Amino acid sequence: MDDLKDIAPELSKLKKENPFKVPEHYFDDFSARLQMKLEAGKMIVPAKQNRFIYYLKPALGLAASFALIFMLVYWPLKTFTPNQTANNNTDTEISEDEGYLSIVEKMDENSFFALLYEPTNAVEFSEEDLVAYINTNITDYDIYQGTEF
Amino acid sequence: MDNDDLEIIAGLKRENQKDLAFNSLVNKYKERLYWHIRKIVLNHEDADDVLQNTFVKVWRSIDKFREESSLYTWLYRIATNESLTFINASKRRNLMPLNETSDFMVKNLTSDPYFEGDQLQLKLQQAIIRLPEKQRIVFNMKYFDEMKYEDMSQILDTSVGALKASYHHAAKKIEDFLKNSD
């Protein structure tokens, strides 16, 4: 199968010469240059990381990012948005109205009309009492001031 | 595995002999690995970089060598992988599609001051460059290095049958290129 004369007669006629060359003394100097490269490599070998930290690092980074987003965006929005404040006020008003409504709703019809026509407890006083009150509490100057247009 | 390799491996496992054994390994294999790498990357400067990277990788991963394969095939495998990684990285750097190799490689070859082939040799290299990556490596190892299929099988982790087929197809394609190009 690999008889070159049969499968590639032109190729088999070519001389197997090496067309590649190397600089003079290349192989003599190679070991010294390699040694320098190895020494340089030893100096910049990074310290080995703890494998546990190495695998946990991405997850920790992700968790820290979420925490930061929560701190910077979600929490301030939740605490300081105007809508939320309006809602709080509305909630209070509704609760006061609900209080009055609940009193009215609990009242039957008879009690409601009885309350509506109930005589007031206003103190009735005579004309003499009124003159005596004015004489005691209001001066002539106050009366003059009040009647002047 | 020959006795030299066994001594090198034993030395690499002893902390007080490791540097000396590694130096022996480099001296024994640097030329063979260089020429293997050079035929894949074509340019001398690139081959030098890849050869250094290969030995750095060998130094760092010597503890992983299990002696299931010979030292020689293990080194060739690392060198081959480093060469292919280097070519793909170069193509990415030059914004070239990974399946487009030939123009980039021809440019790499002709710009190299250490390529001294004549027109016929340049034509042969151009034909080899146009082969698919695996066929190119198989052809170089068989045609130029005259490596045994069994050794190639260990280095490339491919069956002997598949390697023979690859070499056959590669030789046919090169023959066609040599006949049909000016």
Which key phrases capture this entry?
heterodimer, A: about 150 residues, mainly alpha, about 0% strand, B: about 180 residues, 9 helices, globular
Summarize it.
The complex is a heterodimer of chains A (149) and B (182). Chain A has 149 residues and is mainly alpha-helical.
Walkthrough of the structure:
The complex is a heterodimer of chains A (149) and B (182). With 149 residues, chain A is mainly alpha-helical. Chain A is built from 8 helices and no strands. The longest helix of chain A has 30 residues, at 51-80. Chain A is rod-shaped, with a radius of gyration of 53 Å. In chain B, 29% of the residues are buried. Chain B has helices spanning 3-13, 18-41, 44-60, 71-93, 102-110, 119-129, 133-144, 149-156, 160-180. Chain B contains 9 helices and no strands. Helix content of chain B is 75%, strand content 0%. Chain B is mostly helical and 182 residues long. Chains A and B meet through helix 2 and helix 3 of A and helix 2, helix 3, helix 6, helix 7 and helix 9 of B.
Give the percentage of residues in beta strands of chain A.
Answer: under 5%
Category from helices, strands and their pairing of chain A: mainly alpha
General form of chain A? rod-shaped
Proportion of residues in extended strands of chain B:
under 5%
Please count the helical segments of chain B. 9
* Helix vs. strand class of chain B: mainly alpha
What is the C-alpha radius of gyration of chain B, as a whole number of Å? 17 Å
Largest interface: A-B, 26 and 40 residues
Described by its quaternary structure, the protein is heterodimer
Instruction: Give me the Rg of chain A, rounded.
Output: 53 Å
